[in-house]
Every structure is written in C-alpha cells, then in structure tokens.
Amino acid sequence: MIPVTQPFLPPKDEYDHLISRLWDSKWLTNNGVYVRQLEEELEEYLNVPSCYYVGNGTIALQLAIQSLKLKNEIITTPFSFVATTTSILWENCEPVFVDIDPNTLCIDPNKIEEAITSNTEAILATHVYGIPCDVERIEEIAKKHHLKVIYDAAHAFGVRYKGESLLQFGDISTLSFHATKPFHTVEGGAIINNMGERVDNQIALLRSFGFRGDDYVTAGINAKNSEFHAAMGLCNLKYIDDIITNRKKTSETYDTLLENRVERPFISGDVQYNYAYYPVIFETEEELLHAKSQLENNDIESRRYFYPSLNTMTYLKNTISCPISEDMARRILCLPLFSGLNDEDVERIANIIIGEKINEFAHNRRSRLHRV
C-alpha cells in the first residue's frame, strides 16, 4: 500500500536521547524545557517575532480568534480543511464565505469588500496547500476597513514570499504540526503573533487556563503541549530542509511525468514553496472518481483535499453560494507525497493518472463521433 502521506521520523536514538532526560527531570508538561527550546528554535528558523507552541492547529485558530477578542462576522474561505470554519463557529462568531481565486485556490481578494458589513471584524484566510494568499491586497482591504487578519498557515511551514517568511504577514498566523505535515511534532500547532507584547500576553494566558501564578486573569483553556511532542519537534527541525528538498524532487518528478496531462494550482515565482501537497485538477468529478478508484485498485491512496466546499456544510446557519470553490472541490485530488516515496512508485502513480486521461479522451471522442 502506498499511503497518501507518511510522517518523517528522525533516527530513533536521537529521540530516545531527549526522552531519556525526561525520566531524570520528571518535567513532562507545563511549559517545560523542550517546549521553550522548540519555540525559540522555531522563531529563529521561521524568522518570526513570537511563537506559541500549542496542542494542535485547530486550538491555535481558536486562540487566535479569542486573543483578538472577535465576536461577530469573520470573512473566510470555503476551500480549506473543516477546522478553519469550525474554529469560527466554536468561538461563537459567524463565518461569511467569500469565493476563491480559480488559479491559486486561495480566497479571492477582489470579492472580499462586497462581503464586508458593519458586523465584520476580521478576515481569516487559508494559504491553501501552502500557496500564499494575495497578502498585499488583503492587507490593503483590512487597513481600509479596520479589520484584523488571521492566516490559517497550517500548510505553509517554511514558505517564503518575496524573500520574507509568509508568517510575517497578517496580525496572527497559525500552524499545524500534525503528523501529516512536512514538519510535525506528532500532534501540535503554533500561533505566530505579529501584534506585539499585549497580544503575546493574552495568548500566553489563554493557552494555560487563564491564570498567572495564583491569579485567574481571564477565561482560558488548556492548549498546552507536552515535552514528548516538543522533543519530536526538536529532532525533526534538524531535518526539515532535507525533507522539503526531498518533497521538491518528488514533486518535480510528478511535474515531468504529468506535464500537460493535468491542471495544477498556480504558484508565483515570488514564492519559495514547501511542497506540502501535490494536488491535481481533473476536468470533471466523474474523471476524478474513476482515477481515484483505479489508484485504490492498485493499493494507492489519494485524498479529496478539500471536499466538500465548506460553505455547503449542513450545520451552517446561513448558506452562501461559492461556485468556484464548489466546482474545484469536486475536481481536485491530492496524490501521494512524502519523504521516502521512490521514483518507481511516482511513475506508477503518474501512469495510472495518464491512463485515465487517455481513457477519458477516448471516451469523449467516441461520444462525439456517435453524436455525429
């Protein structure tokens, strides 16, 4: 079986070395040595002003919303993992969906302003597959209308835009360190704050029950992460450049084999990418489903990431039509991509996709001839 993704694991002895020290210290959680060290190393690697390590990427989004004291409408994207929307709902805010750019698949900034009302407080946009949103245009709109900007950067670890860390844009960015990500801590996430000390203090309080010493300052939650998870992060961070290089090589092999056979999202030349995913866009949902079935028949996993379009979720109070997102969600499939995926398997996967494209072309041609 070829999985759609597979976590990188460091040499076991390196992890064992860090873990063995925990048996001596007995300090397993509550902002321990490894958590603080990981935050410092991430700040340096990502070139960001502050980093708060938390339990997962979803709680990072919720804490971002809480720390900015958002209460009303938040403009967001329908093309993302479900946590982007549910985080807004869990914080008792209202998601207002704006359709996506058909090229980058990120929120379309040209459609944001028409969605702004007197109740709009923020924009929560996702760097889809690690592809940057139009951060300059979003910043311009946010300043004009006095809105906060949160970026769901769960896929964007290590991505740079015009030579700068993508995480430096917006008021807050959030990261996921789930095992499926290029950089992982098994489970985990982080909040990157660009707003200074006041919001830093708020995030720190919210992450740890809302208390400082013996005083309960605000209504916080337990969003901390453990020394065991942080130790995995410290080990993996040493290998992240090699991991990204390996994923780039695999992606370029796909590119060569699938050239002109499938549509792909657009990534600007200004972007230093992290190769988090390898999505391909089929002409129809039927074609996607047939290709997915053929991959499964060959013991190859793929994933409809993201499906369905979030604006169509049945538990939403208000539904907003987002035709581009709805169409793209039906036609996008992520192919296997992870460190250790060999060229022979990539070629096998690509040949199945190419075969399905050829079969589809032949079917369409026969249909046209039949009609004539």
UniProtKB/TrEMBL annotation:
GO MF annotations, alphabetized: transaminase activity
Pfam families: DegT_DnrJ_EryC1
Entries under InterPro entries matching the protein: DegT/StrS_aminotransferase, PyrdxlP-dep_Trfase, PyrdxlP-dep_Trfase_major
Keyword annotations: Aminotransferase, Pyridoxal phosphate, Transferase
Family indicated by similarity: Belongs to the DegT/DnrJ/EryC1 family.
Name recorded for this polypeptide: DegT/DnrJ/EryC1/StrS family aminotransferase
Lineage, uppermost ranks: Bacteria, Bacillati, Bacillota, Bacilli, Bacillales
